[in-house]
Amino acid sequence: MTDERRLLAGPERTVSPRIAYGADYNPDQWPREVWAQDARLMQAAGVNVVSVAIFSWARLQPAPDSWDFGWLDEVMDLMHAHGISVDLATATASPPPWLTTLHPEILPVTRTGETLWPGGRQQWRPTSPVYRRYALALVEAMADRYGDHPALAAWHVSNELGCHNVEDYSDDAAAAFRTWLRDRYGTLDGLNDAWGTAFWSQRYTDWEQILPPRLAASYPNPTQQLDFKRFSSDALRDHLRAERDLLRRYTPQIPVTTNFMVMGETKGMNFASWAPEIDFVSNDHYLQPGPQGRAEMSFSANLTSGLAGGRPWFLMEHSTSAVNWQSVNVPKRPGELARDSLTHVAHGADAVCFFQWRQSAAGAEKYHSAMVPHAGEDSALFRDVVALGRTLADLAPVVGSRRAPARAAILFDWDSWWASELDSHPTELLRYRAEALDWYEAFLDAGVRADVVTVAGLDDGRTDLADYDVVVAPVLHVVPTALADRLERWVRTGGHLVTTYFSGIVDGDDHVWLGGYPGALRDLLGIRIEELNPLHAGDAVRLDDGSVGTLWSDRIDVRPGTEVLARYLDGQQAGRAAVTRRPVDAGSAAYVSTRLGAAGIRPLLGRLLDAAGVGSELPEPLRGRVELTVRRSAEAEYWFLVNRTDEPVGLTGLAGERLVSTTPDDGAGTAAAQDTLAPRGVVVLARPRERS
Ligand code: GLA
């Protein structure tokens, strides 16, 4: 099976060829009478896939030696009888009370030594051999029982691995950390060098002396902290591999996935390194509160596409309306259900699924929206859900199409995220993802497409720098020699690199590159900085291009041949360079020494893109008001036009056959006037591909 076939094998197996549509389905929360109604309503809504048994361990295995599969047999059969595929969970996400009572040593321990007790969910240590033994026994029982079931379309390993237990500081974690460190460094000398243990009398003389960075008397060693983040992510990935290997032994024909959490500040799991481990990438996304919420959603979907190497992926969860875990949980407005869903499809999702099918009557998530709300099927929300099912059916032609690469990209890196936000730094105010998001929003405002790609993707070939004319690498803090060389080669052959404050500073061991900042990128950028200069919260500096900087302002020495694009008007660096650009052979390397925010980046981005010959593909009046995303198959391009505003937008001048056109009234109707994009609406145009 080719990668692409495998990726699509899940949704295609019984519902070919359609966008998968569905939800987490938790029938074990409901009496049997409700199940038949569920199946009927699922059909009415066009649901064709459900994720089942995610939190069912306690029900499936009521005691160490007793199993209860009867109810799940019935559910699997019921789904099959209604033409609905099952993405079957391995059910290992939340261990049952009998297990944590029998083996309290599987419970995670925080940095401060507190145990995370049962009563919530996901209370297990990723490195516990005892938990692993019980979990794999359950996986084996599931694979054995359902491996041949005709409804089975995919395996769903655990659930949101690391959501609540990514950092565990227990003794199991300590032992596994030592093993991980031995693999990485080979010798204690290697570790001592990498961790810089000459500092503060930290030299280790025996592996057993090494601990996770538990609450210490002062700042724990930064490389120890960084390695512990790497290890913690890898430990969960090992668990994913263990379940996956077992599933592949039983059912090599069934694709395996797990739902990532590419969203907001969820940063413990390096999904760039997990994605190659599974047959298709899945993501969960919930709209983040705040003014950048929708830009963040687009950014996350775009990054998920980057993780998938531009291939289609699976939106495993989002919400039909309100969630329950913010301080105030407001419902979505008319049109937003369709707009949010199609934003993910625009970025390559071939599935639109929700948490969850039927809103719970009890439990911690009873106020979280679902496809069938408390009000029942006679509700505006369920009617919107049905309408969305129809819209997705109309989008069948896009299934299997890939993202059409943009000419610009944003380079995202988990190591830089982790390392740039460590403690005892020039500032604790820096937020890595926020800077990347600002640049992304500026691209959206300019109406210019930008792909979000990862450093790991460059390393393993998921992404080719040569596809891009412009790459923005915000706060690219960790720059090993190989990455610096790769960027320089690309710049010399015509690439235009843009980077920011606190970039190029350290190598992969978090050791500072000496000789002046920005270290590994200093020569390429044609600048030199002697002292890092963060700004206090609330301090702002004006630039002569009208923008305002916060957070940082470097004192830059500009080398001959490097241009100054903007200068500081006030503050410590008044009169000195704020933004520089060095022409390098066919390309260039630019440096932005302060935090401009999306609005401040916007005019600068225009100049940088102009210099690189990259522009918007949208007609002028649409730029900024409409998000354009393009998917591409062998025959056609699909232009997704998402209205970012609450006003109608005229679409004159855009060719193509309308596949769908959503409106706030019905969430999915065809009522929108021709050549108009409704407020909060989405239009998808199919355009035959031009052959060169
Ligand atoms: C996560 C989980 C779901 C549910 C939702 C609620 O995504 O996977 O089980 O808790 O959050 O938003």
Condensed summary:
With 692 residues, the protein is of the alpha/beta class. It is 32% helix and 17% strand. It has 3 domains: 3-167 and 233-400, Glycosidases (TIM Barrel); 408-612, Class I glutamine amidotransferase (GATase) domain (Rossmann fold, 3-Layer(aba) Sandwich), CATH 3.40.50; 623-688, Sandwich (Immunoglobulin-like).
Keywords:
692 residues, alpha/beta, TIM Barrel, Rossmann fold, Immunoglobulin-like, seven-stranded mixed sheet, 19 helices, 27 strands, 17% strand, globular, disordered N terminus, binds alpha-D-galactopyranose
Can you give a write-up of this model?
The protein has 692 residues and is of the alpha/beta class. The strands form 6 sheets. A 9-stranded parallel β-sheet has the order 5-4-3-2-1-9-8-7-6, with helices on both faces. Strands 12-11-13-14-21-20-19 form a 7-stranded mixed β-sheet, sandwiched between helices. A 5-stranded antiparallel β-sheet has the order 10-22-23-27-25, with helices on one face. It is globular and about 75 Å long. Mean pLDDT is 95; it is low at 1-16 and 667-671. It contains 19 helices and 27 strands. Helix 6 (129-146) packs parallel to helix 9 (222-250) and helix 7 crosses helix 9. The structure holds alpha-D-galactopyranose. The site of alpha-D-galactopyranose has 9 residues, from loops.
